[in-house]
Amino acid sequence: MSIQWQTAKTYQDILYCKADGIAKITINRPDKRNAFRPKTVFELYDAFTDAREDQAIGVVLFTGAGPHTDGKYAFCSGGDQSVRGEAGYIDDIGVPRLNVLDLQRLIRSMPKVVIALVAGYAIGGGHVLHLICDLTIAADNAIFGQTGPKVGSFDGGFGASYMARVVGQKKAREIWFLCRQYNSQQALDMGLVNCVVPVDQLETEGITWALEILEKSPIAIRCLKSAFNADCDGQAGLQELAGNATLLYYMTEEGAEGKQAFLEKRKPDFRQYPWLP
Ligand code: S0N
Question: How far is CA 101 from CA 44, 87, 134, 141, in A?
Answer without folding.
Answer: 12, 14, 16, 27
